[in-house]
UniProtKB/TrEMBL annotation:
GO CC terms, sorted: plasma membrane; synapse
Domain Amino acid permease/ SLC12A: 49-221, 338-631
Name under which the protein is recorded: Solute carrier family 12 member 7a
Family: Belongs to the SLC12A transporter family. K/Cl co-transporter subfamily.
GO molecular function, one term: potassium:chloride symporter activity
Compartment(s) where it occurs, according to its Swiss-Prot or TrEMBL record: Cell membrane
Organism: Oncorhynchus mykiss (Rainbow trout)
One GO term of the biological process aspect: chemical synaptic transmission
Source species taxonomy: Eukaryota, Metazoa, Chordata, Craniata, Vertebrata
Amino acid sequence: MSNPMVSSLLNKLANYTNLTQGVTEHEEYENEEGVTKIRSPQMGTFIGVYLPCMQNILGVILFLRLTWIVGTAGILESFAIVVMCCTCTMLTAISMSAIATNGVVPAGGSYYMISRSLGPEFGGAVGLCFYLGTTFAGSMYILGTIEILLTYIVPNAAVFVAEKKEGEAEAMLNNMRVYGTCCLALMALVVFVGVKYVNKLALVFLACVVLSIMAIYAGVIKTVIEPPDFPICLLGNRSLQNHNFEKCVKTEVIKNVTYTTKLWELFCDSRHLNATCDEYFTLNNVTEIQGIPGLLSGVIKDNMWGDYGPSGMLVEKKRQSSVPAQDNSRDIYMPYVFNDISTFFTLLVGIYFPSVTGIMAGSNRSGDLRDAQRSIPFGTILAIATTSFIYMTCVVLFGACIEGVVLRDKFGDSVKKNLVIGTLAWPSPWVIVIGSFFSCCGAGLQSLTGAPRLLQAIARDGIVPFLQVFGHGKANGEPTWALLMTAGICEIGILIASLDAVAPILSINGMFYPVSCVQFFLMCYLFVNLACAVQTLLRTPNWRPRFKFYHWTLSFLGMSLCVSLMFISSWYYALVAMSIAGCIYKYIEYRGAEKEWGDGIRGLSLNAARYALIRLEEVQPHTKNWRPQLLVLLKLDSDLGVKHPRLLSFTTQLKAGKGLTIVSSVLEGTYMTLGAEAKSAEQNVKSAMHAERTKGFCHVVVSSNLRDGFSHLIQSAGLGGMKHNAVLMAWPGAWKQAEDSYPWKNFIETVRETTSAHQALLVAKNIDKFPSSEDRLGEGTIDVWWIVHDGGLLMLLPFLLRQHKVWRKCKMRIFTVAQMDDNSIQMKKDLQMFLYHLRLNAVVEVVEMHDSDIAAFTYEKTLVMEQRSQMLKQMQLSRNEREREIQSITDESRISIKRKKSSVVETLKAPNTLQAQLITKLGTKSHGNLNDNAPATPDHRVHMTWTKDKLITERNRNRSEPNVGVKDLFNMKPNQSNVRRMHTAVKLNEVVVNKSQGAQLVLLNMPGPPKTKGGDENYMEFLEVLMDGLDRVLLVRGGGREVITIYS
């Protein structure tokens, strides 16, 4: 055995550091001359986790305020406060241990755990709040250091001295500001010069804390044998400040002569026996009792219950008789001990809770531990158990050993300005004074060391853009800018924390601690518990912590305790802290960088989405819940960009209904060859959606032809109950000028498929003339031409559009058409009543269409339409002939080559031809084949060769028919059915143009397509005539169900 156990322990203690791993790395960087040595972590549980947690938990509250809390709240209520706070931190430590053992936790500690478990929004919000809490805690520790210095060590060092008693508090506050600023500057300078100096002092600070606690327990044991001599002076039942007099008597007899004492002079206007004295002083006698009666004195009975009171209340001994005075107006000028602030239970909870913080010290240094998976849970929980035992026993022992009036004396005025807890310590009160002074110094240095690194970790993650400057520092990574920011916030705390009457904070007479700081710590612990609970309930595959002694119920209990303590300590500060965190959350969500850390909120969203989708698919949505779930069919240009971005703008304006939006497009080809182009197109569409502020999903598919692609999207877009119920597309404006008929046939097939799928169809004409989302339309109208009832969609769309700021100022007009035998007046009344029940505000107009003779223009328009159709057929047949001639030449050359080959090759042709015929007989045709106008053979088989004889026969047969058509082309008469349809379209267009030519938008019923494909082109002509002369038109075809109801 090379090293004895004791020497090994001493060696580890000599190398003890209370700094996080990032700080240690920076220190090593400074010590090395350009060489970075990589060494394995050597810290164990005791040195790496237990001692740092102990040092961070035990601190200023224990030494300066715990005795006052026990005296004010009583032993029972103080014990309840300690148990409640310690239980909260213990449950949080269990959750933290589970998270910390689920992977390495680098610098950032709680921020890293929350952000990687709940996402950057929660992590950034809680991390910044925790940073503010840690920074203000630094202010608290610095003010605590100055309080000890000026109150107990060198009281004569005060810069400001009050001339009157009522000015003492203000003078003390000014001294705190001056000395606090100097102390802050000195500490910040030490941290800036090098954290290695803080590291070297860590052992000294830890030793002071341990020795001070040992001195307290030693003093308690000594009270059993020999209680210390700390007499206190009572006037009646009132406790007196005895630092201005030595003897607790009014007069004394020296050589049979009665002399007045210093106490007499404090209450009388002169030192003579016949002087005028304070009434209460005259009526009551002074008594002297021991301030530390001891453990066996039975004083525990008097200290069992609390003694709350308002600010300025006198500290009085219970069960002590006294004679009340009539006039108490001058009590404030007398040397009594007063309450400096109003006291109540929730206030004490807020003051005490900071004394149990610091449980993250072990998890922050996981990279420095030999076995972090074992050390963090064991060391942290053991440290909390140890400190909880210390706090609980101190509450009981203080109440059992110290007189109640001394416990309630916050600053030790009744024991000659000694620290109250110091009067109990052995061998001397100076052990506690010096120990608490260095403890506060160490805690302040730790705050100034840890808080900048927390801010640096948040800044380097880039989740808050304006904080990125604080991610930079010195060459070794020291967070210089973050340190300056932290020092500035600490200075604000030092300067304004004393404004008890102005700023709603807690004043502890020189040590001022904002309650919001407590809220920030509690909020951090709340989200640590939430992170553990979410991960446990989601059962994500990556959730495999080595620490097994956790359960989601414990995490929820910890969350409940955190929320309860937040509102118990201060409900309005809890709301303020939550509001601050909420604002930071929304800012990060709106402006922060997108981070994907595999957080639990994403998994929670997936589970919630799965549950909601399953519930949605169980039942059909009610009419009251109907909203347009849009499938937007986009066209892409040659550069894979969006051809009509205003279609996305219109989608955004229509989505005041907050429904589903799926933006899709199709690339023609195979996915193997166009996979990269499809991804690029999808990114372009997403960029266009972001530019137009369209919220929804994007999907670009690759198909053998566009028709199949759009058909698949109409059939299969969406998931479960979140499927589209309406299709939005642009009108093919240049369909007449197209070289082939594919665009308008594609459009008509889309109309047919949406009708078969019982989906609504919205077709926007002149979509590029529609307003963008940045435009604001002034006075204007949205005109609805309600010709056929389609479920109410025609009337619902203008209402949804007017919810958007672009269309908000536009008024809605509804036109309906009456025939000769209709009662126009009654129709208008009925329609107005119908709109009233639908809660829609619109102007109603009934337009009468008279039967008239069919004008010559209608015949001419119909004739031109039919002639154009015949011409297209001729052009298509001529093109087919040319293709077949080329094919015959190619086949003849191939036959001449094949004749030279062996007969074996010729025998192989038969099976191939037979196979092609069998495939064709299966009848599997794509949409692309449906648009092929080549005449089919009677047996509907595909011939592998086209012989010359067949070519001549087919050419003679085909030429006979078109030649007849050409002769009669200009002598033909229009079809009467087409004439009637054209007449209706022309008359309706005249009425619409007359009434709505100046409207901002015109909505029209879209007639259904013809049942046979022979009239497809005529259908396009009818629609073109119907919309002629109108700038912005939206054709609407309902999906076959009611979408609006008069019921609530």
